Amino acid sequence: MKRAALALFVVAALCPAQEQDVLMRAMRDELARAVTLRLPNSPAPYYIEYGMDDVDTFHVSATLGALINRGDNKIRAPRVNVRVGDARFDNTNYIFSDFFGRGGGSRMPHEDSYDVSRHYFWLSTDRVFKGAVQAVARKQSALRNITQTEKLNDFAKAEPLKLDLGKSRPAAQREAWTATAKRLSAVFNEYPRLTNSVVEIDSGFGTSYLVNNEGTEIRYPDDLVTVRVRASAQAKDGMLLHDGLSFHARAVGSMPSEEVMRAGIHEMAKNLTASLDAPLGEDYSGPVLVEGAAAPQLFAQVIGNNLTLTRKPVSEPGRTFPFPVSDLEGRLGSRILPEWIDVVDDPTLESYKGAELLGYYPVDMEGVKPVPVTAIEAGKVKSYMLTRQPVRGFEGSNGRARLPGAFGAKMALFSNLFVKAKETSPDADLKKKLIDLVNQRGKPYGVLLRKLDFPTTSTSEEIQRLSVAASQRGGGKVVSSPVLAYRVYPDGREELIRGMRFRGLNVRSFRDIIAAGSGEQMFSYVGTGLTLPGLNSGGYVAGHTVVAPAVLFEDLELEKREEDFQKLPLVPSPVMVSAR
Amino acid sequence: MLSTVRNLCLWALIPVALAAAQPEPKLLDILAEELDRNFAVLKDKADPKAYYIAYEVVEQQNESVSASFGVVTSRGFPRHGRTLDVTVRVGDRKLDNYHTIAGQFAQFTAGIPLPIEDDPKAIKLRLWQETDRCYRLAAQRLINIRTNKEVKVADKEVSDDFSNEDPSTHVEPPAMVSFAGAEWTERVKKLSARFAKYPRIHSSGVTVAFSNEVKYFVNTEGARLAHGRPFSRVSVSAAGKARDGMDLSTFDAFTAADPKKLPKDGEIGKVVQRVADDLIGLLDAPVVESFVGPAILSGRAAGVFFHEIFGHRVEGHRLKDESDGQTFAKSVGQPVLPEFLSVTFDPTLKRVGDEDLNGWYLYDDEGVKGRKLRLVDNGILRTFLMSRTPIPGFPTSNGHGRREPGAEVVARQSNLIVEASRTVSDKKLKQMLIEEVKRQNKPYGFYFQEITGGFTNTGRRGIQAFKVIPLVVYRIYPDGNEELVRGADIVGTPLASFAKIIAATEKHEVFNGYCGAESGSVPVSAVAPAILVREIEIQKKESSRDLPPLLTPPMNPASGGGL
């Protein structure tokens, strides 16, 4: 609230501030010329868009109290999109849409130079335009040989928007954050069994620009500070265990205090250390209580990610194209959750109950102002996350274009996802219900999950194994494995177990939710649009927050991770010498 | 929004000129302690046993700025980082985990980051884990190698996998060199602005790059080293597109160790002008046609020529590997070049005249002292560039085992120096070219003035071809006229070209650059006279056929015109 008011004041006082913005002028002026680009016997451009992120970054990393490295960087990443033809048929949504018009040697200046910025956009647009013309011609000839099952338009209308929220003011606190990273990383000195640990603080203070030939002009600040913590260790049988933790803030002022972060690291380190001695979990099929961070983490992966519909690009005969499809595709109106659960996505909220929401943004990458969307109503699929790319059943954006996408389109992603249960039980009662079910079924124990490996700290080999297992079991997409999993015995005792992963968990499993808690768990993370983002994401990122209650599944399956464990090192740890 | 990819974001120490006598770096003690602790276990209790371990830490401070048309286009902010490379050898000198099978080089090390603060606990934890990881991979590979030996035909010639060398001790970390980042930023901006006069130059740039490198090395033979040097470079480039779509570019660079030795703006400005003029000339120059005939290569062009067609073929490991072409394998003692030419590799040479050499270093990446060697003596091949990987007939290293952090060491070039026992003046060389043109009944000959590095394929499967990529080339007519041409590529097979060098000048030129090969990018130089080659083969390079930009350039040329 406070930040938005300040921005408006700035705009009013310096009006027309955007007129004086050198980059904005350069983009606007060159765009005005770019619409005149023509090649003989080829379709003309009907839509041209220039976007740019101007970001100042800072990074510092430390381990066990020692500085690894730190440094600054500046990124100016321009995007030029040209559509030739018309909204019904253009050069996008074709497998070679991104292929033509690549490359280019000119560099975008890091200083605000009108001339050199225009020079960049001039050469870039020329190249992209020529590529668009090649792509649309080739797309046309590809279509002569294949029949399209569905004819969708290539681009949806949107209202032009002029929005100026000012520029970002870089505020990296280099010295303070370096000291904080070192101090926080030193916490792991108290957990000598955790052989690998690192604390990283990253900040990006950026200004985003967008101009198109429909009259849209956007400029707004987009800042993010992230603290990422990772640790790993080997259990006695050689199993590699790892976990991570992150804190985020969209402004320096809303960063969590060092005390809060320190407490979080202690908790993670204690749990990871305890996991080293935990027994291996066994294959399990039965009731599962998902609480703590695990609830929003699960909803993010299985519901949130599936609210993005993909559109199959026009291909060429003989080319098979492995194409990820949402599990919710074609399920409009189907019930996928209990009828007492709604799911609402709302990027217009900056905070919720005093906590900052990471999924907030004022306008999307296509210049469309986002609106809240009820994705699931009374358990039934009502809507999806949409961009200006028409998808089956929908033409028209709801302002969810959050990352660059493939084949000339943008990627739709959820933002702040609220899972609202109308019928709830007190959180403590959920465990009782779990035990009741366990007894009813005559099982020796039930399972309780408190945290998943999301975003993942797994190695690429581990992710590979998970993907293979997921597709073999007919589960489809990968869901990250539990990090904190417990057996719950009929007497209420909890026993930490390790080495479990989900089996066959997908959207269908969510129909088996039989109860939800009255509390709300909030989980924020930064992703790259991948199903399983890593805890080390770079490049274009989107923030998400999920608010969800603890939920009790009547039936879920978990299985042992089957793999050969690496032998323990022959040489004892240099920090455990005295313990031996 | 955009975040940044992590991994090598670093911070500069405030450069301070340190006194020559410094206390021993604490890092060496930390490395040595952890090395000994790990080796004590791995040499006795492991199976297979380790017989050698080495730790190399490369500490770098880097900074760079690029400017184009008067504004900064990118900044390499001050960075400071350390990278660790671990070598574990299991088995024994005769057969260990580094043995090459069927052209597959072993890769164990990973170049992981180490804290830049000398915290023993934090550093030792990483050393320990990395040693374990490399040991594991080493053990696995040795088992594969032993199996392979049972199954495949015995290698024709057997040599050991690791040489016997005396360990060196040299602890002299170099004094910190300062880099005036702010001042250089203004300078490259101003220099780059000169290209703005030329609307046909689409992209151009002036870049200054600086790095200060310190290498720490310990091994289980008792070696203990700390040494290093700075590197600085100013490079100038310009590119444009001819009307027929051909992309053209020109380039030049100044290299020095200490950035204070880089030239003043006046001298760099002259080069900026020449790079611009050459490009403008090229944009309208006629395109070459295929040609076989005589050519002169300038000293710098000849340096690259020798580096590519000769230098890579005398890197020792290539002869050991059964999949390499082994061009010179049987040639020791035989003539490989005309008798008036000799080739020396000298990593101890810091400069030639006033120019610093890029390929200078004290110790290589296996801790062996860099040694000057006479590789070719009046045309006769005497030896090879050697790392600690022996080849038949050459059991020891001559200090040329090099790598980029993160790669495994192989024999690489240092400073390549070509000398001629009989020389002619520049003027005479041109006369000889014309005589040769007439003798061969050709319409013209060629002069290669500026080139950029090419690439070679020395594997058995590909053709033994080399490519040196010319930038500025002239046709020389029998009447002495010189005509700038574009689109020329030198091609050919190495053995044939060597025999055809017929003359050389007295004056040498220096080409400083970076060489990329199996063990990554390493700094090198090539010092050579201009040479006359009886027969060189040229073909027209592959060229884009894109149209030039459809709209006119938006920038207003500065008053004073230009094309």
CATH domain class of the largest domain in chain B: Alpha Beta
CATH architecture of the largest domain in chain B: 2-Layer Sandwich
Shape of chain A from CA axes?
globular
Q: List low-pLDDT spans of chain A.
A: 1-15
Mean pLDDT of chain A: 91
What structural class should be given to the helix and strand makeup of chain B? Answer: alpha+beta
Strand-residue fraction of chain B?
25-35%
Keyword list:
heterodimer, A: 580 residues, alpha+beta, PmbA/TldD fold, 2 domains, seven-stranded mixed sheet, 9 helices, 24 strands, 30% strand, globular, B: 563 residues, eleven-stranded mixed sheet, eight-stranded mixed sheet, 23 strands, disordered N terminus, disordered C terminus
Q: How would you describe this structure to a colleague?
A:
The complex is a heterodimer of chains A (580) and B (563). Chain A is of the alpha+beta class and 580 residues long. Chain A has two domains: 6-276, PmbA/TldD superfamily (PmbA/TldD fold), CATH 3.30.2290.10; 284-560, no CATH class. Helix content of chain A is 23%, strand content 30%. In chain A, the strands form five sheets. In chain A, strands 1, 2, 3, 4, 5, 6 and 7 form a seven-stranded mixed beta sheet that branches. In chain A, strands 8, 17, 18, 19, 20, 21 and 24 form a seven-stranded mixed beta sheet that branches. In chain A, helix 3 (22-34) crosses helix 4 (114-143). Chain A is globular and about 80 Å long. The termini of chain A are far apart. By secondary structure, chain B is of the alpha+beta class. Chain B has two domains: 2-283, PmbA/TldD fold (2-Layer Sandwich), CATH 3.30.2290; 291-540, no CATH class. Chain B contains eight helices and 23 strands. Chain B has helices at 26-42, 120-151, 181-193, 265-283, 299-309, 317-320, 426-439, 494-498; strands spanning 50-68, 71-92, 95-96, 112-114, 169-171, 203-219, 224-241, 247-256, 291-297, 341-345, 351-352, 355-356, 373-377, 380-381, 401-402, 410-411, 415-420, 445-456, 466-476, 482-485, 488-491, 501-517, 520-540. In chain B, the strands form four sheets. In chain B, strands 9, 10, 13, 14, 17, 18, 19, 20, 21, 22 and 23 form an eleven-stranded mixed beta sheet that branches. In chain B, strand 1 and strand 2 form a beta hairpin. Residues 1-20, 460-465 and 557-563 of chain B have low confidence and may be disordered. At the A-B interface, helix 3, strand 1, strand 2, helix 4 and strand 5 of A face helix 1, strand 2 and helix 2 of B.
